[in-house]
Amino acid sequence: DALYSLLPTLNGVEPALFMRAAKHHLRAGELDRARFYLQGGLERGSDDDEVWALARPAWREAGRGVQLGQWMLERAAAISPRAPHRLRLDAFRQMLDAGSSPETLGPPELIVAQLDLADLDNLGEAMLTYRCAVAVGDRSWENRAAEALENLLGESDPIYPDVLRSRIRHEQARYDYASAARLARRLLALGEDDAQVVLEQALAEGGESAELLTVLHTRLAKGDGARSVLLMRIARIHRQAERWHDVATTLVEVEPEERELLWGELAWETGEQRMDDALRAAAASVCAEHAKLPADQAMWCRREAEIRWWALDQQEDGEDLLRQAQLLS
Fold first, then answer.
1. Tell me, what DSSP letter sits at residue 257?
2. Distance between CA atoms of 233 and 250, rounded to whole angstroms?
3. Which of 54, 123, 206, 301 gives 20 to 30 Å between its CA and that of 75?
4. Cα–Cα–Cα angle for 70, 73, 77, nearest 5°?
């Protein structure tokens, strides 16, 4: 106690004596007093690395990581008020590890300025850069760090799927759908619930219709997803390529009770292209059932009536449909 009160008044005291006093208080678990002497050592020329090597484990073990980080930020401001300094990166790590919210790290521009000092070949620093970039919403740094982590992390790491998602967003943003699909396949291999959707989106946006059709047919065979939804997606892919025969054969697989307005409209277009009167009649029936306005319902009833009467030789059905159209008009 006498030393505690005496040392600060002695300007000529060697930094080593401050460090010895700090170690004594650290062993006793007296962190506030230890900080007093560690700070005194810093101000008198003690090696920064030695001071923080002593402080880090003690403060972290005591659950005072936020306080440690704030102390580091104060020190960084004193020795490098404007230029980036690696001590700020250390401070960010301590505070984030302690559960501090990103807002407490400082202004976003201050945080981003420090990231230029990070060594992205180092797992710890790449991880820190990723966390900081995500916290402040800097997409460029987020991707740079995620790209490094993609190679540095093991696939069993809990954050690895999020890293892949980050990389996928970046590749999609720059329209590199082939890379996005490659990453999505890795995400799928990890068993992530959203991976299938991500992969299919990347394949669709990248125009990889052949692979997408394979994926959808595989899901269809496995019963992975609503059958009618998968069939409609397959039909639309064939429609984009104007493979009208494949569109027709896919559409008829949709159960009648699951056919909605989109089915009817695509079936009508396909029937027109293929001059398939039976498909046109079925399409008109579905459109009439699901159209919202009576005038539209009446129009589809008349179309179906015309086909059934003149093309399919179903005069009685045609008459019934015309009467129905009259009531709707």
1. G
2. 10
3. 123
4. 145
